[in-house]
Amino acid sequence: MKICVVGTGYVGLVAGTCFAESGNDVICVDVDAAKVAALSAGEVPIYEPGLEELVRRNVEQGRLTFQTDLDDAVRRSLLCFIAVGTPEGKDGEADLGAVMAVARGIGEALDGYRVIVDKSTVPVGTAARVEAVIGDCTDHEFDVVSNPEFLKEGAAIADFQKPDRVIIGCRSQRAGLLMEELYNPFVRTGKPILRMSPESAEMAKYAANAMLAARISLMNEIANLCEATGSDVEDVRRGVGLDQRLGPAFLFPGVGYGGSCFPKDVKALIQVADQYAQRAQILRSVDEVNDRQKGWLFEKFQQYVGGDLSAKRVAVWGLSFKPRTDDMREAPSVVLIHSLLDAGVRVAAHDPVAMPVAERIFGDKIEYFDKSYDALDGADCLVIVTEWQEFKQPDFDRIRQLLKTPLVIDGRNLYDRETMKRIGFRYIAVGRQPVGEA
Ligand code: NAD
Fold first, then answer.
1. Above 90 in pLDDT, residue 116?
2. Residue among 4, 10, 17, 205 to mutate when testing ligand 1 (max atoms within 8 A of CB)
3. Closest C-alpha residue for ligand 1 atom 28
4. Fewer CB near the terminus (10 Å): N or C of the chain?
5. Closest Cα to atom 2, ligand 1: which residue?
6. Residues spanned by CATH 1.10.1040.10 within the chain?
7. How far is the CA of 316 from the centre of ligand 1 (A)?
8. Whose CA is nearest to atom 34 of ligand 1?
9. Per CATH, is 294-429 categorized as 3.40.190.10?
10. What confidence tens digit (pLDDT) does each residue in 316-351 have?
11. Ligand 1, atom 25: nearest CA belongs to which residue?
12. Atom of ligand 1 nearest to the CA of 11
């Protein structure tokens, strides 16, 4: 099939590349000319495991191209995907500026039947708005489909190629069949392609993110209660997760969810509720609990490091909002580092892949270390923010030797309390009792 994907971010680039990998001819379009030039040369500007190799292979095979010219891409495609960003706008509402601009651009370029597919996460009613905008620009036939994306950064290719389900929201049989044909190679193991109305498809995406975010906030609230009551959240987590009605996924307590989806999608759904005069009580709490949880690391830092903070130095391991990505949008590390800098603390940071992104945020206000242990030298404390695999079994004796004070504040509960005690650390973890002497 001939496809264009507009927006070459985490979603558009992965979707376009995976469609090309299954044999389609894909044109990826972006307004960012520098990004288009880099991608055309086989350079992937984001970190996503396995993506660069896949992009290169499909570019070499001539199935995947990049350009800024939307008109030309639309004329050469049957299916046009909209995969641009929908960031948080005024009062938490989803900003649909880019989606509508692309819809208009597609409408103006139509020279015959096309399927316009909304892959961006958008509030209910957006497919209808996209249809109206395109309808104002053209007399040609077209269908609009809502096809929300459920991939996770860090595992995006596997998620895209083996989705739990594919949702196709449309009323047109013609468009629905084309979409099924496109997605059939990805559901060969029997996972379902669900057909529904565009409104239900749009809501299904927000509902999934709202549920996941709620589970995280609830677990974080329980972790704080564990800390206060003398319980251990790791035991509680296991006790809860073995209940077949609940299951073990998404029960890890931490320092709040970040990234480009949960925070903005929860807020956008609250706004949708307001517009329909509904009370989104749970969602508001989910958001509030998350904001508070992002302050947990700094709170512990103040409590356990104590004294004149402006004379302190802290090593931060992990900057991305989760492992296996360089995405720092809404990352807990950003909140922590701003608080540390405001208090005059010197910050020595390490992340396996996100340091170039961090440099764009913090410039020379913090120090960056390519090697994790180098960040520890002379620090008053090590703070773990992201659960990268390489932080899970470090050389504890080396950490102990390098730190000025043997204090580890762990926002991801990576370590065994007994080991930390034996080596002589003061060890503070989420929802657990502190280890070691003050
Ligand atoms: P992103 O910010 O990484 O990428 C958006 C891209 O769109 C950028 O390259 C930007 O230059 C381009 N763009 C902006 N305006 C444009 C225009 N008018 N014409 C052409 N290109 C334009 O965004 P993302 O993380 O890929 O997210 C895209 C959408 O997918 C959002 O709605 C998001 O909520 C949703 N989503 C994201 C994820 C994720 O994990 N990142 C997962 C599922 C769904």
1. yes
2. 10
3. 85
4. C
5. 85
6. 205-292
7. 29
8. 121
9. no
10. 999 999 999 999 999 999 999 999 999 999 999 999
11. 10
12. 26
Of 18, 80, 226, 261, the catalytic one is 261
Q: Give the model confidence (pLDDT) of 23-38 as tens digits.
A: 999 999 999 999 999 9
Domain with CATH 3.40.50.720 in the chain: 2-196, 294-429
Find the 390 Cα to ligand 1 centroid distance in Å.
29
Which atom of ligand 1 approaches the CA of 86 most closely? 32
Nearest CA owner, ligand 1 atom 20: 30
Q: How far is the CA of 426 from the centre of ligand 1 (A)?
A: 42
> Is 261 annotated in the active site?
yes
Segment 185-190 mean pLDDT: 94
Structural contact between residues 6 and 80, judged by C-beta atoms closer than 8 angstroms: yes
User: pLDDT tier at 307 (50, 70, 90 boundaries)?
Assistant: confident
| Superfamily covering domain 205-292 | N-(1-d-carboxylethyl)-l-norvaline Dehydrogenase; domain 2 (1.10.1040.10)
What digits encode the pLDDT tens for the residues 126-142? 999 999 999 999 999 99
pTM of the model: 0.96
State the chain's mean pLDDT as an integer.
Answer: 97
Q: Residue 413 C-alpha to ligand 1 middle, in angstroms? A: 32
Quick one: which atom of ligand 1 is closest to the CA of 148? 44
- The architecture that CATH gives domain 2-196 is 3-Layer(aba) Sandwich (3.40)
CA of 6 to the centre of ligand 1 (A): 9
Q: How far is the CA of 420 from the centre of ligand 1 (A)?
A: 42
- The tokens 């809501």 sit on which residue? 203
